[in-house]
């Protein structure tokens, strides 16, 4: 081997092979070994079968021919004997010769026109009883054959039956089995290799794709590996587990991105609130001073109306700034929290009592569905109160006159679920997707800050819970809050 070729060959065999190639090579090696052993076994079985078939056929043919030769020999009808033997050899092409002998072994008739070969005369059969046939495996004229001898009433008949046709049949059968078996075996090898490696390769490609996207875009995305229709139980389980891990990773990534975004918005909101709070405090103080003067009658009637408008606007601005501060505290994790056992049903009663005027003003009916065995919830009571207050406020704002706002509380032994449902206008998919975003609102200007759901979700996450929103246009909205019952602070 040339010096420059050796490193290339070594490099070729040293490089890692694909799983499908490894499986195929392994099965090909097993198939080759099986072919060698199977071919030898098959050839032996076919050979034994052919010998048994030729031997049994020769015995029957020799016995029948001997019976037919007896009367012809008895009447010395050599012409009839020649016709009989010629007919027999035409009907059975495997017969190579026939010798008709007397009881003492003298030759009466032979199908050899130039005399019986010496090697056949040298063959001696053991003595057999009348009606029995003996057989010997011999080689004559370079051909393997069976030599039969039968005795019947003073007549002996020797018949040579060749094995060549049977051997040709064995050879053809063996080659056909080898060809078709090899083709089917190779097809099965590649099919099995494809079947086994397909889900693993799909899983590997999905992992590689997820890693590439993570490095390039900073987002974790994955495609579900195609293992369900091709894989085994094990590979399907691996693919399912991988998909679950990727979904959890994507969810954690989204939560992390949302947390970073909320924290950033919280910092901005804090700055804005502080910048607005100082001049707003001056406006509120002066509005209060003017309101007192108006009460004493020191201002004209037109000025009194303007003072009332100023006071109302200042109050709205104060509430908006407070919302910003609340959002900033909860989004950055700086909001104080006092975790303690809380009776959720009592909390619902207190919150609905605060909103009683709004419930009456909206002309809605409030329904509360709560089981009697709801345990105490270990939580921040003030935070959970704000969540319920925000959800009820949104439900009342979305409800039309005569609508129903329903509060339901259930628990399954581990999770307490608090759900607020309304029969209002609902949201389309695009609006529902943006509903959790800070400062997004569908209310008219001045009626909402768009921070209620964002603050509520931040509080729920601090409790280790989740918030789910379902909505359909014209069918209302349902917000479900799930919090672990026994979460420690």
Describe this structure as you would to a colleague.
- This protein is α+β, with helices and mostly antiparallel strands.
- It has 3 domains: 20-170, 2-Layer Sandwich (Beta-Lactamase); 237-335, Helix Hairpins (Orthogonal Bundle); 337-484, Histidine kinase-like ATPase, C-terminal domain (Heat Shock Protein 90, 2-Layer Sandwich).
- Helix content is 58%, strand content 17%.
- The protein has helices at 5-14, 19-74, 78-91, 118-121, 164-217, 233-295, 301-332, 344-354, 356-362, 381-398, 429-434, 452-462; strands at residues 95-102, 107-110, 133-140, 143-152, 155-162, 339-342, 365-370, 377-380, 404-411, 415-421, 466-472, 476-484.
- The strands form 3 sheets. Strands 2-1-5-4-3 form a 5-stranded antiparallel β-sheet.
- A hairpin with a 2-residue loop joins strand 4 (143-152) and strand 5.
- The chain is rod-shaped.
């Amino acid at each position: 081997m040339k010096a420059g070729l050796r490193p290339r060959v070594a490099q070729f065999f040293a490089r890692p092979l694909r799983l499908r190639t490894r499986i195929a090579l392994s099965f090909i090696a097993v198939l080759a070994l099986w072919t060698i052993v199977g071919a030898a076994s098959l050839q032996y079985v076919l050979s034994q079968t052919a010998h048994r078939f030729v031997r049994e056929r020769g015995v029957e043919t020799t016995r029948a021919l001997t019976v037919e030769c007896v009367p012809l020999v008895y009447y010395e009808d050599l012409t009839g004997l020649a016709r009989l033997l010629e007919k027999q050899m035409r009907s059975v092409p495997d017969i190579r010769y026939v010798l008709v002998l007397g009881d003492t072994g003298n030759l009466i008739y032979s199908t050899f026109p130039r005399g019986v070969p010496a090697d056949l005369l040298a063959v001696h059969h053991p003595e057999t009883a009348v009606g029995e046939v003996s057989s010997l495996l011999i080689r004559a004229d370079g051909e393997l054959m069976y030599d039969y001898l039968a005795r019947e009433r003073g007549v002996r008949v020797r018949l040579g039956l060749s094995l060549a046709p049977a051997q040709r049949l064995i050879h053809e059968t063996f080659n056909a089995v080898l060809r078709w078996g090899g083709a089917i075996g190779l097809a099965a090898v590649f099919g099995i290799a494809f079947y086994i490696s397909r889900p693993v390769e799909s899983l590997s490609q999905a992992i590689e794709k997820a890693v590439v996207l993570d490095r390039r875009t900073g987002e974790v995305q994955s495609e579900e590996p195609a293992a369900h229709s091709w894989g085994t139980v094990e590979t399907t389980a691996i693919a399912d587990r991988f998909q679950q891990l990727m979904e959890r990773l994507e969810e954690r990534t989204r939560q992390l991105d949302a947390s970073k975004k909320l924290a950033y918005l919280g910092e901005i909101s804090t700055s804005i609130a502080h910048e607005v709070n100082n001049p707003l405090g001056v406006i509120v103080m002066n509005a209060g001073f003017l309101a007192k003067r108006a009460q004493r009658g020191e201002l004209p009637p037109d000025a009194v109306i303007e003072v009332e408008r100023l006071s109302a606007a200042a109050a709205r601005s104060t509430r908006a700034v407070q919302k910003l501060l609340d959002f900033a505290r909860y989004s950055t994790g700086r909001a104080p929290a006092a975790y303690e056992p809380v009776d959720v049903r009592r909390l619902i009663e207190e919150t609905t009592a605060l909103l009683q005027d709004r419930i009456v003003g909206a002309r809605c009916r409030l329904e509360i569905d709560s089981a009697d065995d709801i345990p105490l919830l270990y939580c921040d009571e003030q935070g959970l109160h704000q969540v319920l207050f925000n959800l009820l406020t949104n439900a009342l704002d979305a409800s039309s006159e005569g609508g129903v706002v329903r509060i339901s509380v259930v628990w399954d032994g581990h999770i307490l679920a608090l759900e607020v449902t309304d029969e209002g206008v609902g949201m389309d998919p695009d609006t529902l997707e943006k509903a959790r975003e800070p400062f997004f609102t569908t209310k008219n200007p001045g009626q909402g800050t768009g921070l209620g759901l964002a603050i509520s979700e931040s509080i729920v996450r601090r409790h280790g819970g989740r918030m789910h929103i379902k909505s359909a246009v014209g069918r209302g909205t349902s917000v479900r809050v799930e919090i672990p019952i026994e979460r420690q602070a």
